């Protein structure tokens, strides 16, 4: 039943009972579902309905009538509407809610009524779950503000510091921001579209305390500026040269789309070399790499523990990026076939094999759906598979090929539990695979985003 028009903009009191994937608290009003950003289950709140959609409505929080004991003061309120939707929830509760959401999705979408979901592995207790990122993209608005895009809007939240970036990279951000404002003045918004900062934190420290430390002053850093289409930056080389010297640790400055889509100017290196659990990885500006260095090690350990490749086995690493999982799989297995569609990441994976003295990884460039069908046609054997797709999940043809090639186990690493659940439903249909367990790993504290590793085994395999 749609809400009556009179109910929009009306203020009502509701009990919040759940949290949805997407971050909103959930309540009910006259039998209909209400989504309330900023609420916490267990709270009684006064809200104003602002939007009605088929079967549900969205409401703004006006007043908290009975707060949850899990409510905390946001550390960076300016980030609430640009990504940190859960900073009003105490960190231990964020972890509990993430596991609850994964379980709910696996039951409902994944059709796994008995899904075993382990408690979320959070950031180590001795560090604050902030300043954890090695990578951030800051948008430049046409008015010259620099910061994060606001959710469901094209506006930019102007930020002069960033509570999500590692302290050393936040320092770089602040210096770069001032430099760009000085350099371009009033024309900043006409000239630039975004500024990306990416640092190799694992290259300067391997311990948790070290990786979180604000005493690290110089993290090897790449700075990537995207020129606004149609803009004409005068002497981009000089700008890149000047940016190279403004903060310790900057190893390369890249300006993209200078004078057109393919124009690229760079000074210094075009890539970083990062370290995870003692292995080295080359990461180019366009290649994907995990953004939370402390939790990346945990993710790798979880996936390796679940899959446990044997010496004689051939392992598929699907959506392999620069070869993060391939590298660890290759130390245990006979061979790893690494499939990745982004050319720069495939080149990085090749370079990474050399850096780590590994000769049993075969990086293949192309989509997993296409390459798997070729491998199947050539009757290649795959004993185990790891897949780590983007948020959209696996292509249906890739899932179909996996079912046909029937590896004894599949480790599915996912950054979106709703597509994970959908793909698990497909893989388990027809009783071909069964879900053993899912393990959420918190890569994105203060946000509703959930990383999860799930193990599926072929039915009939011990
Ligand atoms: C979530 S990232 C995972 C990368 C890597 N496993 C890691 O942890 O660093 C997903 C990767 O899949 C790649 N990709 C996207 N669509 C693809 C497709 N259809 N086939 C193969 N790779 C794809 C992206 O370029 C990206 O590198």
From TrEMBL:
BP GO annotations: rRNA base methylation
Example of a GO MF term: rRNA (uridine-C5-)-methyltransferase activity
InterPro entries noted in UniProt: MeTrfase_TrmA_AS, MeTrfase_TrmA_CS, NA-bd_OB-fold, SAM-dependent_MTases_sf, TRAM_dom, U5_MeTrfase_fam
Residue span, TRAM domain: 5-63
Active site as annotated: 415 (nucleophile), 415
Binding, S-adenosyl-L-methionine: 290, 319, 340, 388
Keywords: Methyltransferase, S-adenosyl-L-methionine, Transferase
Pfam families in the cross-refs: TRAM (PF01938), tRNA_U5-meth_tr (PF05958)
Family as reported in the entry's similarity comment: Belongs to the class I-like SAM-binding methyltransferase superfamily. RNA M5U methyltransferase family.
PANTHER family: RNA M5U METHYLTRANSFERASE, TRNA (URACIL(54)-C(5))-METHYLTRANSFERASE
Protein name listed in UniProt: 23S rRNA (Uracil-5-)-methyltransferase RumA
Organism of this sequence: Tengunoibacter tsumagoiensis
Organism lineage: Bacteria, Bacillati, Chloroflexota, Ktedonobacteria, Ktedonobacterales
């Amino acid at each position: 039943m749609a809400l009556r028009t009179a109910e929009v903009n009306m203020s009502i009191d509701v009990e919040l009972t759940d949290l949805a994937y997407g971050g909103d608290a959930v309540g009910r009003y006259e039998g209909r579902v209400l989504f309330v950003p900023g609420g916490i289950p267990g709270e009684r709140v006064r809200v104003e309905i602002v939007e009605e959609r088929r079967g549900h409505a969205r409401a703004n929080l006006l007043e908290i009538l009975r707060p949850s004991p899990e409510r905390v003061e946001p550390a960076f309120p300016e980030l609430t509407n640009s990504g940190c939707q859960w900073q009003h929830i105490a960190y231990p509760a964020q972890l509990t809610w993430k596991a609850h959401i994964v379980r709910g999705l696996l039951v409902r979408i994944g059709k796994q009524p008995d899904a075993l979901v382990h408690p979320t592995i959070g950031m180590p207790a001795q560090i604050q779950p902030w300043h954890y990122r090695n990578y951030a993209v800051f948008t430049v608005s046409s008015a010259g503000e620099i910061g994060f895009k606001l959710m469901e809007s094209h506006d930019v939240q102007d930020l002069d510091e960033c509570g999500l970036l590692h302290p050393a990279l936040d320092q770089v951000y602040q210096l770069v921001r001032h430099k760009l404002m000085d350099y371009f003045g009033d024309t900043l918004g006409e000239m630039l579209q975004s500024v990306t900062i990416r640092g190799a934190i694992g290259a300067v420290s391997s311990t948790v305390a070290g990786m979180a430390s604000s005493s690290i002053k110089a993290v090897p850093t790449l700075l990537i500026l995207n020129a606004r289409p149609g803009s004409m930056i005068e002497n981009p080389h000089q700008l890149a040269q000047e940016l190279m010297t403004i903060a310790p640790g900057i190893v390369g400055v890249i300006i993209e789309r200078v004078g057109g889509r393919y124009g690229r100017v760079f000074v210094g290196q075009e890539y970083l070399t990062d370290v995870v659990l003692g292995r080295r990885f080359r990461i180019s500006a366009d290649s994907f790499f995990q953004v939370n260095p402390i939790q990346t090690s945990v993710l790798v350990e979880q996936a390796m523990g679940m899959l446990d490749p044997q010496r004689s086995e051939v392992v598929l690493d699907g959506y392999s990026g620069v070869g993060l999982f391939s590298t660890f799989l290759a130390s245990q297995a006979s061979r790893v076939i690494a499939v990745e569609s982004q050319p720069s990441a495939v080149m990085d994976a090749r370079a990474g094999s050399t850096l780590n003295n590994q000769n049993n990884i075969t990086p293949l460039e192309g989509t997993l759906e296409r390459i798997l069908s070729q491998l199947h046609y050539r009757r290649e054997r795959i004993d185990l598979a790891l897949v780590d797709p983007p948020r959209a999940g696996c292509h249906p043809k890739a899932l179909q090929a996996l079912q046909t090639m029937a590896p004894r186990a599949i480790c599915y690493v996912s950054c979106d539990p709703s597509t994970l659940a959908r793909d698990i439903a497909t893989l388990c249909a027809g009783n071909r695979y069964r879900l053993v367990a899912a393990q959420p790993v918190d890569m994105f504290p203060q946000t509703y985003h959930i990383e999860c590793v799930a193990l599926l085994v072929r039915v009939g395999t011990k």
